[in-house]
Amino acid sequence: MTLHVALLHGEMIDKTGDEVTTSLTLIDVHDIARSSRTFGAESFYVVHPVAAIRSLARRLIGHWTEGFGATYNANRKDAVERVNVVVTLDDVVLDLQDKTKRTPILIATSAKEEGARVSYSFMASEMVENPEEPYVLLLGTGWGMSPTLVARTDYFLEPIRGVGDYNHLSVRSACAIMLDRLQSAITVPLFDEGKVEERF
Ligand code: SAM
């Protein structure tokens, strides 16, 4: 099974519901890279349609992979060197098609409740049953993904719910929880050895 993560900035909505391009939050880049590496995602795509923002992302990545950061914190280098910076979601799809010879399966996410959703355990079992397929966990920004973007995805994961009405996680916090939930759902206990087997 292969899981990839993509942080999207185009085709988002703003607080009025208009479709917009959002800005990049730099801490998302290395925090999501670290979560992705920790939970075994094969790659992390930062997707942004604005060239200057992509340059900024690449400069940050360069700091941690080639600059002072590479020797200062080798663990972060290990995570950040798996980050790809691309223009659109189509680039993510084309890159994975090129690398895997399969059409990637897209998984939308949102804090909102509406729409037909799948559970984490369902999603994890799909991944385990189709180990040759590349799955891409899509993360939104701003007020989340536009309906047209969600409409082109294959699955829409259920929201992470809090304990009350307030549900405003940062995308990097939400990503870590999602990856942990998927990982937990596919971890099979090996009772005879008292160990667990990790499937991605
Ligand atoms: N109201 C927006 C929504 O529901 O998509 C919030 C956007 S949030 C700042 C940015 C991204 O973080 C979301 O697009 C989603 O990928 C992720 N996210 C944040 N909170 C989440 C939650 N409780 N459940 C699932 N995904 C969440």
Give average pLDDT, whole number: 92
Major sheet: 6 strands, parallel
* Secondary-structure element order, N to C: EEEHEHHHEHEHEHEHEE
The span between the termini is: 6 Å
Kindly report the spatial arrangement of strands forming the biggest sheet. 5-4-1-7-6-8
**Number of DSSP helical runs:** 8
Helix content: 40-55%
Ligands and ions found: S-adenosylmethionine
Please indicate the percent range of residues in DSSP E strands (runs of 2 or more).
15-25%
Structural class: alpha/beta
Q: Stretches where pLDDT falls below 50 for ≥5 residues?
A: 189-196
The shape is: globular
Number-wise, the strands total: 10
Q: What is Rg?
A: 17 Å
Descriptive overview:
The chain is of the alpha/beta class and 200 residues long. 42% of the residues lie in helices and 19% in strands. It has a six-stranded parallel β-sheet with strand order 5-4-1-7-6-8, with helices on both faces. A hairpin with a 4-residue loop joins strand 9 and strand 10 (195-197). Mean pLDDT is 92; it is low at 189-196. Residues 109-112, 139-141, 143-145, 159-160, 167, 169, 171, 174 line the site of S-adenosylmethionine.
